């Protein structure tokens, strides 16, 4: 009984910190999103459906996040297998290199892509010299949502690799070997044996990529300013304009949080059903 009491006392500072720095600000944002001109209102949320800018930003954010999540998963899965199959010490070196992009801020990544693929970028100049491309035409995509897909993949694919390397290590390869020895064709082994084992980790990794992409701000701001209408940039506009709309920005932030949380909840429910 005393041990439980001590554990409870030790957890109190952590609970207080979480409440002060996580729960309380979130509750404040939710409350402020409903509080307009001294009374409660749903006007900020209604604007998402009535005003084209907000509905467009939500739609673009969803398209961008879904695209980067699936492309990142499709590219990260085979790359993670290559890392898993590599021998020591190369495996540790590859894992360390994979983690490097996660240490950079979004602004640094955005400016790095401009240096490489911008109008006067290093790669752009090389392509112009050897293939006679037009730098303006080539680099134009970088400052659209398609360019954001390319830039986001730089820090999303490593997350998928690190997630799936652990999944490959924990996979029961005896089941794969048994299926192959029984003459099962490769597509059957892949779909009926391997993917069910990797499914929970693959789903978790894809959900993570979606959530990170939905909330990414620095890279998008560095590449496009506020030209591409995605939720994080529109929220920034609401609090940086001459006419500051804090309650409206809070409403958009709540929508962003709810959409991201729903994806995580759907993953957890799907994973729970698979375990049952």
Question: What does this protein look like?
Answer:
This protein is mainly α. It has 2 domains: 1-41, no CATH class; 45-275, MetI-like fold (Orthogonal Bundle), CATH 1.10.3720.10. The protein has 13 helices and 2 strands; from the N terminus they run αββαααααααααααα. The chain has a two-stranded antiparallel ribbon with strand order 1-2. Helix 5 packs parallel to helix 11 (218-224) and helix 10 (186-215) runs antiparallel to helix 13 (246-275). The radius of gyration is 23 Å and the shape is globular. The model has no long low-confidence stretch (mean pLDDT 85).
Strands, helices and their partners?
Elements: H1 2-34, E1 35-36, E2 39-40, H2 43-50, H3 52-85, H4 90-99, H5 106-117, H6 122-131, H7 135-139, H8 145-170, H9 173-181, H10 186-215, H11 218-224, H12 231-240, H13 246-275
Antiparallel strand pairs: 1-2
Helix pairs in contact: 1-13, 2-3, 3-8, 3-10, 5-11, 8-10, 9-10, 10-13, 12-13
> End-to-end distance, in Å?
34 Å
Number of helices: 13
The total strand number stands at: 2
- Low-confidence blocks of residues: none
Proper CATH architecture of the largest domain:
Orthogonal Bundle
**Relative helix content:** over 70%
Q: Characterize the main sheet.
A: 2 strands, antiparallel
Q: Which shape, going by the Cα principal axes?
A: globular
What would CATH call the class of the largest domain? Answer: Mainly Alpha
CATH topology of the largest domain: MetI-like fold
Give the CATH H-level superfamily of the largest domain: MetI-like
Strand order of the largest sheet: 1-2
């Amino acid at each position: 009984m005393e041990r439980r009491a001590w554990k409870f006392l030790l957890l109190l500072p952590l609970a207080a910190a979480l409440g002060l720095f996580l729960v309380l600000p979130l509750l404040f944002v939710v409350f402020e999103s409903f509080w307009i001109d001294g009374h409660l209102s749903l006007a900020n949320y209604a604007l998402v459906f009535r005003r084209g800018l907000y509905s467009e930003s939500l739609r673009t954010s969803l398209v961008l996040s879904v695209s980067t999540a699936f492309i990142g998963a499709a590219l990260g899965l085979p790359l993670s297998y290559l890392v898993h199959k590599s021998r020591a010490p190369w495996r540790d070196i590859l894992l360390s290199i994979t983690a490097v992009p996660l240490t950079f801020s979004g602004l640094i990544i955005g400016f790095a892509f401009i240096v490489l693929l911008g109008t006067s970028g290093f790669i752009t100049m090389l392509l112009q010299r050897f293939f006679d491309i037009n730098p303006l035409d080539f680099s134009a995509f970088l400052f659209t949502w398609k360019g954001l897909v390319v830039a986001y993949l730089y820090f999303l694919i490593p997350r998928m690799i690190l997630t799936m390397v652990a999944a490959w290590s924990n996979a029961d390869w005896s089941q794969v070997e048994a299926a192959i020895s029984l003459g099962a064709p490769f597509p059957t082994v892949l779909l009926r044996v391997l993917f069910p084992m990797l499914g929970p980790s693959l789903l978790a990794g894809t959900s993570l990529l979606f959530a990170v992409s939905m909330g990414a701000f620095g890279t998008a701001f560095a590449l496009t300013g506020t030209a591409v209408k995605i939720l994080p940039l529109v929220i920034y506009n609401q609090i940086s304009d001459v006419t500051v709309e804090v309650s409206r920005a809070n409403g958009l932030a709540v929508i962003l949080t709810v959409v991201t949380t729903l994806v995580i909840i759907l993953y957890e429910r799907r994973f729970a059903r698979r375990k049952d």
